[in-house]
Design a protein that fits this description.
By secondary structure, this protein is an alpha/beta fold. It has 12 helices and 16 strands. It is globular, with a radius of gyration of 23 Å. GO terms for molecular function: 5-amino-6-(5-phosphoribosylamino)uracil reductase activity; diaminohydroxyphosphoribosylaminopyrimidine deaminase activity; NADP binding; zinc ion binding.
């Protein structure tokens, strides 16, 4: 079989780490000897052994003379675990096939160089786009130290996220809603505005039986979140961060007493400075945020330039209504030339609904 075939298998193993390895990358590895797969592995959880070491440990026979396929360049530095280059050199592997180069400045080609200097044949870029694509969050975070932000919303075919009375459950079907739960597992944090909390009283947890709850982040400039809100009452099940501009400790105390973190940041135009918030979240190791807010927060996020991807779930329904809400509110742009530009969307059919996903090409209207 070809290098591409084995790398595709390694990618399948890499995906098994989804949601568990953040802020590390998802990585898969396969050991092949004489045309036979003798070992497989993936990075299972943050802080645990990397994919290469797991694959080598699983080998059903000695790996001397074998080829190692790995979706991301092997690390060459001491972090939570020892360098994978050491394990490869000790194993007797004679060839390594790499999907994408690690953008981490501690690696960034050094791992490949070490292997070559020690006489190991290295091939690069096999299924490179796919190997880079599964780690779009990691690549963004390691380069910027700010979370990768996905703005997600569900709307009807006439662009409404709620009826004229404010009702929104449910716009999309079960298949699309399950995909949302998968993304709550995939991304480290989930963020809404105070308006969503006051209107919907959401849990913001992952409903998958084997899923991981994201860190719940609420932009609440004046600390108006009700103390009996679900995100406050069940903060033991999932961490909750209330982000405010208020410096009134008397207001903050009841939330802290309930187990929430209260993060005070500077205001911008009377609201939380979202760029300052992303910097603060990055320092906490939160590498990605699923933005599930309403139109006001979506507009602020776009204006501040923090949105990296847009996910639009479109249902074959029409709500109508001049006062029915749309996914992006605010003042809006004055002319088509000022539009936020998106890349050509990836289209996924989810039951009767459609998911459109686009990278944001121009993400700020600010000077």
């Amino acid at each position: 079989m070809s290098d591409e075939t084995y790398m595709k298998l390694a990618l399948e193993y890499a995906e098994k780490g989804c949601g568990w390895v953040n802020p590390n990358p998802m990585v898969g590895a396969v050991v092949v000897k004489d045309g036979r797969v003798i070992g497989t592995g993936w990075h299972r959880r943050y802080g645990e052994l990397h994919a290469e070491r797991n694959a080598l440990a699983s080998c059903t026979e000695p790996p001397q003379g074998a080829t190692l396929y790995v979706t991301l360049e092997p690390c060459c530095h001491y972090g939570k675990t020892p360098p994978c280059t050491d394990a490869i050199l000790e194993s007797g592997i004679h060839r390594v096939v790499v999907g994408s180069v690690d953008p981490n400045p501690l690696v960034a080609g050094k791992g490949i160089r070490i292997l070559r200097q020690r006489g190991i044949e290295v091939a690069e870029g096999v299924l490179g786009d796919a190997c880079t694509g599964i780690n779009e969050v990691f690549f963004h975070f390691i380069r910027t130290r700010m979370p990768y932000v996905v703005m997600k919303y569900a709307m009807t075919m006439d662009g409404k996220i709620a009826t004229c009375s404010g009702q929104s459950k449910w716009i999309t079907g079960e298949t699309a809603r399950r995909r949302t739960q998968e993304d709550r597992h995939r991304y480290s944090g989930i963020m809404v505005g105070i308006g969503t909390v006051l209107t919907d009283d959401p849990l913001l947890t992952c409903r998958l039986p084997d899923g991981r709850n994201p860190v719940r982040i609420v932009c609440d400039s004046r600390l108006r979140t009700p103390l009996n809100a679900q995100i406050v009452r069940i903060t033991g099940e999932a961490p909750t961060i209330l982000v405010t501009c208020s410096r009134d400790e008397a207001l903050a105390y009841p939330y802290r007493d309930a187990g929430c973190e209260v993060l005070t940041l500077p205001a911008k135009d009377g609201h939380v400075d979202l760029r300052a918030l992303m910097t603060a979240l990055g320092k906490k190791g939160i590498d990605s945020v699923l933005l599930e807010g309403g139109g006001a927060l979506n507009w602020s996020a776009l204006q501040s330039g923090i949105v990296n991807k847009v996910q639009a779930y479109v249902a074959p329904k029409l709500f109508g209504g001049i006062n029915a809400k749309s996914p992006v509110a605010g003042m809006g742009v004055e002319s088509p030339e000022q539009a936020f530009r998106l890349a050509s969307p990836q289209v996924t059919r989810l039951g009767e609904d459609i998911l459109l996903e686009s990278e944001v090409l121009s993400c700020s209207q600010e000077s």
